[in-house]
Write a structure and sequence with these properties.
The complex is a heterodimer of chains A (574) and B (399).
Chain A (H helix, E strand, L loop, with lengths): L1 E5 L9 E8 L2 E9 L5 H5 L7 H5 L9 H14 L5 H27 L14 H11 L7 H16 L20 H21 L1 H7 L8 E2 L2 E2 L14 H32 L13 E3 L19 E3 L15 E4 L5 E2 L7 E2 L7 E2 L22 E4 L8 H10 L3 H14 L9 H31 L21 E9 L2 E10 L2 E8 L1 H6 L10 H6 L11 H9 L28
Antiparallel strand pairs in A: 1-2, 2-3, 4-5, 6-7, 8-10, 8-12, 9-11, 13-14, 14-15
Helix pairs in contact in A: 4-7, 4-8, 4-9, 4-12, 5-6, 5-7, 7-9, 9-12, 11-12, 12-15
Chain B lengths: L2 E3 L14 E3 L8 H7 L4 H14 L6 H9 L6 E6 L5 H7 L6 H8 L1 E5 L7 H14 L5 E5 L2 E2 L8 E2 L2 E2 H10 L3 E5 H6 L12 E2 L1 H4 L5 E4 L6 H14 L12 H4 L3 H4 L3 H5 L10 H4 L18 H4 L8 H4 L11 H4 L27 H20 L4 H4 L6 H4 L5
Parallel strand pairs in B: 3-4, 3-5, 5-9, 9-11
Antiparallel strand pairs in B: 1-2, 6-10, 7-8
Helix pairs in contact in B: 2-3, 3-10
The chains are: A alpha+beta (574), B alpha/beta (399).
């Protein structure tokens, strides 16, 4: 048995360490460890709840804005505030744009190099590459001379012997099997996706002032003024035109570049429709309200749970069933290591018991991660685009069903293929398409409201903290972030934050084992992964990256003095 | 056979390779020459150099010098470290439009280590960093993102089993220049906010022996960062800095003085409630808590995401994200700033207007002077730590 360590796991957000044991060229067991903490929830205590979103947004700069959204929703829930419909639409537009942008960046810039060998692109025939490109898409940048230009750029880079970001890749690894032309196509689109994402995300600059870290949320609505007759208003007819153009750009890119590339690359790696299946339990909070946030039945992405890969039943979701375990996390609970605690009554008493740095291996029989292990009804859950797609599919949502069924036909794969590494990748791309279809509809609704004189953007009834209840109030806000189910819990007392807690997607997916020894989603998905060369475990990266890890969100409350917070703390985020 | 001759840039000793050699292949040519051969026009490079010249507020004739620096045959090496970060500065870099990230990362520099976007992982990633430290000692540039935890032996951030502090000391200590991007790498940022649970500090405090240039903001503006890199590559020295080691070209002006809503402030026209007529007409956000009058940054002029907008244009107040310890010192963010002379927040809007313009102008001048004095004062770290106070104590503004 060989023990391998991947630390840092790169092309992710944040600091993730994977340890795995290899037997007979396959992973026999795996351990996922988060190795960084900041303590944002503790920092939030005693601050103005109206600005919690500004702080909480900094949990993550990659899935920027999703924490801001969950945060304002939590405070609005606690204070009983409904936002105007224009604010709902703008939030949906921002969130959908974030989703599309994040998925594209994930596929091309964080994940593609696990499948694409940049150096092999040099062997491609640009004319043949143009043929391949034109056979799978109408995307206009597909001429021989275009691909020759890209190939020359790569040639320049490699000949310079300064490969920059590409210098440390696993080039030449036998697991890379794409023909040279597909490699060249993917490299071209890697560069084009860089251009796309920076252009498209101007949608966030229009509505949020900047990206990352948008700055126009408000508890009670948005700070984006709307006026059909004012050039200085954030949203006016001229800006609607720009938003519409940018939405069109996204739809075109997803349709003509992202989806065809996913299908093309996936078709060369059919074994990854059988690998990386993982837990088989899927959870989605649901999101994109069509009216009040309380009207969960009318979310575009439905709420629910699929258990044991059984798509015939969607179980209802009650956040009261969420508990967090610390048996393998560097914390203590007052009622012992085996207990699970609901986020609203959590405790965080850090107790680092890992090896003193610098170290080679973690003691995985003991505690080995800063992440806690969240469970739903004591079951480990996978969250993310695949979970959302499966819950929507099982719920009978026709928009999702049509896409998934068509994709399976195209890939010549059975429905069971969805429970896999490539299933996650395909679900993410299909979700981007769904978002790109809905984006222009929300922009049109906003335009319609504006042109009919509805310029309401903020519900200011409870803006003044003197209008808030004197007693403590609690709220919960959720969102389906690109990486999955995101929840923020807040308790407000005396006009200040008493407790704050975020349980985020990568906690669910990247968390360690719990008290009963159940593996987290990454750990489960890695079992059985082939590893041709333990020195260069690209196969492990393929499955870990298929979850799109986001570790900065792993910001637990950590007190340097080891003080115990027995009140309902802010245990964790991730 | 092509003969390519390189000459040295006198103010730039470290990156210059003085040699005359034959260039059989692309490895011996300058960035510009190679790109020109392979389809990237010199015009595009001229545009890039021109933009950098403008961002740095240099006279136009410096453009030639910048181009010259970019024509060196070996690309300068850069490593980007991430510690207690959110990767927001990395993402901002990906959104960079002028220059684009592909220009910077692939063509102008050799970006050898950057966890979020580099190809290699694990041992290969560690080896890439180790190689740079070993073979390019004293010749590479280092960018740091995120704070560095110091409590409990640094166990709150480890990479490859090593603490962030250990890595920062080695990598920054062997670098030619170290640049902190974002608030966290500058002064600990949000991570150091009260009660600073992990003993987080900024790069300068973690690596005291190294002079760190700071590009704060939450996140940094990639055009400023690119401009600093280009300036250094061109002239062999950093641009003029203030006492926080922030470049003056980006942090020398008050936001309020560059703000498109400034005329409304001077005329006494304010947003009173979110979404009211004043808000829709673009009136001043001072009463909604905007910190623009106390914030230094060039974001109203460079703007974000291809110069599309910035927070105040989009309708929300500034949070002074490039100011020292801003999370603790500038929050609560919706409390308006303290009164300035001749400008009472309780004065009805109608009475603030042309009548007080003189007073406002005078107050602004006083403010500018204060900033200048503060900017040149000796900076005592123990003084700075007094900003680390509980939020309840830091609520000192009038509403």
């Amino acid at each position: 048995m060989t023990r391998i360590v991947i630390d840092p796991v790169t092309r992710i957000e944040g600091h993730l360490r994977i340890e795995a044991s290899i037997e007979g060229h396959a992973v026999s067991d795996a351990w996922s460890s988060g190795t960084m903490f900041r303590g944002i929830e503790l920092i939030l205590r005693d601050r103005d709840p109206r600005e919690a979103w500004i702080w909480a947004q900094r949990i993550c700069g990659v899935c920027t804005t999703v924490h801001a959204l969950a945060s304002v929703r939590a405070v609005e829930d606690a204070l009983g505030i409904e936002v105007p419909d224009n604010a709902r639409l703008i939030r949906n537009i921002i969130a959908a744009a974030q989703n599309i942008q994040d998925h594209v960046v994930h596929f091309y810039h964080l994940h593609a190099l696990d499948w694409v060998d940049v150096t092999v692109a040099l062997k491609a025939d640009p004319a043949k590459t143009a043929q391949v490109a034109q056979s799978i898409s109408d995307w206009p940048k597909s001429s021989t001379s275009y691909f020759r230009t890209v190939q020359n750029r790569v040639k320049t880079l490699i000949a310079s012997k300064q490969l920059s970001l590409f210098s440390s890749g696993y080039w030449g690894h036998p697991a890379y099997i794409l023909p040279p032309e597909v490699n060249l196509l993917a490299v071209a689109h890697y560069l084009e996706a860089l251009e796309f994402q920076r252009e498209f995300i101007r949608i966030h600059a229009v509505l949020g002032g900047k990206n990352p870290h948008l700055q126009t949320y408000l508890v009670g609505g948005m700070a984006t003024s709307i006026d059909p007759n004012e050039p200085a208003a954030t949203v006016n007819p001229e800006r609607i035109t720009l938003l519409t153009e940018l939405a069109k750009l996204a739809a075109t890119f997803v349709e003509q570049v992202y989806l065809p590339d996913v299908f093309a690359i996936a078709s060369y790696y059919p074994e990854y429709f059988k690998l990386g299946e993982g837990l088989g339990n899927f959870m989605a909070y649901g999101c994109y309200p069509s009216g009040s946030i309380k009207d969960t039945a009318n979310f575009l992405i439905p709420r629910g749970i699929v258990m044991g890969r059984d798509l015939s039943t969607v179980h209802p979701l009650d956040p009261a069933n969420i508990h967090e375990y610390i048996a393998h996390s560097w914390y203590e609970y007052s009622d012992g290591n085996q207990a699970g605690r609901h986020p609203s009554v959590g405790e965080t008493k850090p107790k680092y018991s890992g090896p003193q740095p610098p170290f080679e291996y973690l003691d995985v029989e003991q505690k080995y991660s800063w992440l806690k292990a969240p469970r739903y009804q004591d079951k480990a859950m996978e969250v993310g685009p695949l979970a959302r797609t499966l819950v929507a599919y099982a719920s009978g949502r026709q928009d999702v069903r049509k896409k998934v069924d068509a994709a399976l036909v195209k890939l010549n794969a059975p429905p069971a293929a969805l429970f896999s590494t490539l299933g996650r990748i395909a679900a993410r791309a299909l979700e981007a398409e769904l978002m790109a279809e809905n984006l222009p509809l929300w922009i049109a609704q906003l335009d319609d409201h504006m042109s009919h004189g509805d310029v309401l953007i903020h519900n200011g009834e409870k803006w003044n903290p003197d209008t808030w209840p004197a007693h403590a109030v609690r709220g919960w806000g959720s969102h389906e972030a690109p990486r999955g189910a995101l929840g923020h819990w807040v308790e407000i007392e005396d006009q200040k934050i008493k407790n704050y807690q975020a349980v985020v997607p990568s906690t669910w997916n990247a968390g360690p084992r719990d008290a009963s020894g159940q593996r987290g989603a990454y750990e489960a998905a890695l079992i059985g992964t082939p590893v041709a060369d333990p020195e260069r475990p690209v196969e492990i990266l393929r499955t870990v990256h298929s979850f799109d890890p986001c570790m900065a969100c792993a910001v637990h409350v950590v007190d340097a003095q080891g003080r115990e917070y027995s009140h309902e703390v802010l245990s964790q985020a991730l | 056979m092509i003969r390519v001759t390189y000459s040295t840039c006198t103010r730039y000793p470290n990156f210059t390779i003085i040699s005359e050699r034959s260039a059989m292949d692309d490895s011996g040519k300058s960035v510009v020459a190679c790109l020109r051969k392979h389809g990237v026009s010199r015009r595009q490079f001229l545009e890039f150099a021109g933009l950098m010249t403008a961002t740095l507020a240099l006279p136009p004739h410096y453009q030639a010098q910048i181009l010259h620096a970019l024509e060196q045959k070996k690309k300068p090496i850069l490593v980007w470290l991430e510690f207690q970060d959110c990767a927001g500065n990395t993402e901002a870099m990906l959104r960079s439009s002028h220059p684009t990230v592909a220009d910077v990362v692939l063509d102008v520099l050799s970006w050898e280590y950057h966890e979020t976007i580099m190809a290699g992982a694990g041992h290969q990633a560690e080896a890439a960093l180790a190689r740079v430290i070993r073979e390019e000692k004293g010749k590479y540039m280092c960018i740091v993102e995120g704070a560095i935890p110091t409590a409990d032996g640094g166990v709150y951030c480890t990479i490859g089993g090593r603490t962030a502090l250990d890595i920062a000391r080695e990598v920054c200590g062997s670098a030619l220049a170290t640049i902190s991007v974002g608030a966290c790498a500058w002064d600990g940022g949000l991570v150091k906010s009260y009660p600073n649970p992990t003993g987080a500090v900024g790069t300068q405090e973690a690596v005291p022996g190294v002079k760190v240039v700071n590009l704060p903001g939450c996140p940094h503006h990639p055009a400023n960062t690119a401009a600093v890199l280009v300036h250094y590559l061109t002239f062999g020295e950093m641009p003029a800095l203030d006492s926080y080691n922030r470049p003056l070209f980006a942090y020398g002006k008050i936001i309020h003085d560059q703000c498109e809503r400034r005329a409304h402030y001077d005329a006494g026209r304010f947003t009173e409630e979110w979404g009211d007529e004043g808000h829709r007409k673009g009136y001043c956000l001072y009463k909604m808590g905007c910190k623009g009058p106390e914030a230094n940054y060039n974001c109203p002029t460079v703007r974000y995401n291809d110069a599309t907008s910035w927070p105040v244009k989009a309708g929300h107040g500034c949070i002074a994200c490039a100011s020292p310890r801003f999370w603790d010192t500038m929050s609560p963010f919706y409390k308006r700033l303290p009164n300035v002379a001749g400008f009472g927040v309780d004065v009805p809007v109608g009475k603030i207007g042309v009548a007080v313009i003189g007073a406002v102008a005078a107050a602004t001048a006083v403010h500018l002077a204060a900033v200048t004095v503060k900017g040149h004062a000796h900076h005592d770290p123990s003084e700075e730590d007094k900003t680390l106070v509980p939020p309840s104590h830091s609520i000192k503004r009038e509403d």
